[in-house]
Amino acid sequence: MESHELIKWGLIIGIPLFVLLFYRFILRVFFGVVIVPEDRIGLVTKKFVLFGKQQLPEGRIVATEGEAGFQAQTLPPGIYFAKWIWQFEIKFQPFTIIPTGQLGLVLARDGAELETGSILGLKVECDSFQNAEAFLKNGGRKGRQTAIITPGSYRINTFLFEVIMTDMTSIPDNAVGVVTTQEGKPLEEGQIAGRIVEGHNKFQDVDVFMQSGGYKGLQEQVVLAGTYFLNPWFAKVDMVNMMEIPIGHVGVVISYVGAEGVDLSGAEFKHGNIVSKGQKGVWAEPLGPGKYPINPFIMKVELVPTTNLVLNWANARSESHQLDKHLSTITVRSKDGFPFNLDVSQIIHIPTTEAPKVIARFGNMNNLVSQVLEPTIGNYFRNSAQDSDVIAFLGTRKERQTSAKKHIGEVLDQYNVFGVDTLIGDIVPPESLMKTLTDRKIAEEQKVTYETEMKAQETRQSLEKETAIADIQKEIVKADQGVLIAERVADASVKKATGEANSVRLQSTAEADRLKLLANGDAERIRVLAKANAEQIELLAKADAEKISLTGNAEAEKILAIGKSNAESYKLSVEAMGGNNFTQLKVMESIGAQNVKIMPDILINGGGDSTNGGISGLLGLKLLEEVAKRNEAAKSEKEQPGK
Predict the structure, then answer these.
(1) Which architecture does CATH list for 249-429?
(2) Where are the domains of the chain?
(3) Which residue among 271, 408, 442, 567 is least packed, with the fewest CB closer than 10 Å?
(4) Are 572 and 564 a contacting pair, CB within 8 Å?
(5) Residues whose CB is less than 8 angstroms from the CB of residue 279 and which lie 6 or more positions away in sequence, other chains included
(6) Nearest Cα residue to 573 out of 495, 483, 462, 498
(7) Can you tell me the distance from the alpha carbon of 228 to that of 122, in angstroms, rounded to the nearest whole number?
(8) Residues 105-142: tens digit of each pLDDT
(9) What distance in Å separates the CA atoms of residue 423 and residue 408, rounded to the nearest whole number?
């Protein structure tokens, strides 16, 4: 079943194919018919010539006059007759297609010889190399062609032309294409780049470039961002970044091409030529911040900071501009022979108008630093250090910084640079000297510490003294109050004793009057007896008074001794009361404590006759005995209150 199906389909396909091939073979052999498909061209090779010119001229490989060989004329799509199989060989060739983004470079295998010194054949009218016969007859040169084939489909005779595909030239944003041409006039002597010529459409039209007198080699003109049909056999393009001048800087242009210009710097400036824009030399007008399509092979742009620029002479510190990356800490030697290190910062400013002069003088900013700033600042501080010892240098840092600013500013002014400020940073004396200084400083600080502690101790002593005085003052006040109280108590006691004495005196007087009335019969005698008793009592009273006085004095001394033991101020106690008052106080206390009666209860009168007088005397003695007994009893009761 399957074999029958295969045979069936084989017949269905094979018979028409056989008929078609047989038909074309019959047409080709017997009628010389050639059918060129619509997507092909026919390349014709003539095997022999029956009539006419037989051979190609010497050096030619493509026939334009019907000679035998490769034919310049091709067969476009269509039907052709009399192309007998025994005379013509027809080869079907696909169209040459140049895709988008590419271009076709053409190499001609036949044509006139290139001119001496040329490497490319100039463009001739030949319908973009689709008319090989016109190319050869119009003077087309063999070899590489200046003309290119842009994207599209072309009927190219590959017997004559070889087409090589290559990418278009694309220049990205923020980039510049620097062009070097392989064809053109030789550069003039003394020139390094070809002058700008117009009309060649950014080197895309090679023939116009050459006809306009374009030069071979490096070109002044650059190609900006975009896509270009540049023939790489004619022009080589190198990509470089656009020149970017940041804010705070200007770009001083040094041009190596252009006409010789007139020096604009003036007679006083003798360190280089400053010329107008477009001329060879240093341009007087610097470029401001922005991006510029500069050809770095013919121009050089030196960036010059126009803001304040800080340069550090320090091993461990460098600014972002890197102009001070080779600067290091300055080592100097003092008058006393000690080497020590200095960190120095120099602030400079270059005005925009002075930037071209700085570059004309030094070439670049690095040379300014190495040729002027570094030796000037280094030598100044070395010379300054030799006039002083290390300690004095440390102590006069501010003055030396001011002097350095003035001196360095005057030097920089000669080089069109403004010295803003000179700052002395870290000063590192020798370690041995630093140890000595440190020990000295520690000793001085210890001295200050000891003096402070001494003052603190003196203050503490003064405080304690004042505190003690305040405490004693409290005791003095207390003693004063005690003396005042004692005085008041003594006054009260004296007044009490005086009152009691007056009372006793009044009672005695009343009793005497009473007894006097009782003794109406013997008044005179009683009077005499009373007088005698009064004298006796007075004597006793005087003795008791003396006793009381002595006792009071002793008591006063006791009180005075107690007062002295409590405080020195207690001695004022007796002085405050007075001696007599204090004595009266003690007398009255004694009288009150012993119940002594100043006036006797019975007065014995010794007057009258002898009989009555004797009886009165006996009665008086008896009364005295009774009084003594009663006093003894009272004293015993007082001593023994519990019985």
Answers:
(1) 2-Layer Sandwich (3.30)
(2) 1-27, 96-241, 249-429, 479-636
(3) 442
(4) no
(5) 255, 258, 259, 260, 261
(6) 483
(7) 20
(8) 999 999 999 988 899 999 999 999 999 999 999 999 99
(9) 11
